[in-house]
Amino acid sequence: MTTMQDSDWDAIEFFKPEEFNQPNKMEYHFINRLDQFRKMIGKPIIIHSSYREGDPKSHGRGEAVDVHIKGISLLCAYVLASESGLFGGIGVYPNWNNPGLHLDMRPQKARWGSYSKASPTVQVPFDSEFIKCLDKLGVENGPC
Ligand SMILES: [Zn+2]
Which of 4, 32, 68, 103 is the most buried (most CB within 10 A)? Predict the structure, then answer.
């Protein structure tokens, strides 16, 4: 794993180190993918969580962020993230204060949704049933 060095941030077009809680513990390739995704979609990506000390999963390796994307629906954000091919793991979280996505760079493909605010969250398959529930939750689920 290669972590971001101070000088690496100069080459990142859309994100500043201040947007990450421990910027130099973020994985170099992951930040580059996130920057590429931001460029691709042309919408602001707001980072809510990034590196988490002691997390045995991707956040603890600096290979994940929790975000919301301004100006598009949650469903559209999911579709764009999934179709970009940049992220192995994508979680959809309609119950966050800012409904958003978990994005990570695990090598295998994983997709899930989560309805609950409880921790640990209850994860369910991200499928047509889940999408129907976005409506009931009042979360924007319009097309791109
Ligand atoms: Zn996450």
Answer: 103
Radius of gyration of the chain (CA): 15
Instruction: Give the pair of three-digit tokens for residue 110.
Output: 């994983």
pLDDT band at 107 (very low <50, low <70, confident <90, very high): very high
Ligand 1 center from residue 2 Cα (angstroms) = 20
Scored b (16 or more CB within 10 A) or e, 17-46 reads eeebeebebbbeebbebbbebbeebeeebe
In this structure, is residue 142 part of a structural domain? no
Q: Whole-structure pTM over 0.85, yes or no?
A: yes
Single-letter code of the amino acid located at 109: K
Tell me what pLDDT residue 135 has: 76
- Domain assignment present for residue 42? The answer is yes
Instruction: List the shell of residues around ion ligand 1, using CB closer than 5 Å.
Output: 66, 102
- CATH number for the domain spanning 39: value is 3.30.1380.10
Quote the number of domains for the chain: 1
Domain containing 24: what range? 6-136
Residue 91: the pLDDT is 94
